[in-house]
Amino acid sequence: QQPNGPSPVDxxxxxxxxxxxxxQKLTLVCKQKCVSKYLESDLNVGEMxxxxxxxxxxxxxxxxxxxxxxxxxxxxxxxxxxxTQVLGS
Length: 89
Fold this sequence. Notes:
Elements: H1 8-34, H2 45-88
Helix pairs in contact: 1-2
């Protein structure tokens, strides 16, 4: 008997890929916004502050989007379940 859906290893690999993609996007967005020139080996105070605010807002927005996506998926599943019950009756 074959299992339904992806294996736990596949799910873990997908999660790692998603986290890596999120980190790449965060890095790109905040670098473009906060670091205009590479004049020193370290970020200056203004750049560090900007990167801190940018990454915090980026992660907050990402969590909000994930929450809304989960809520939408749950609503869609409820609709499917309701339709299945109505059609099955």
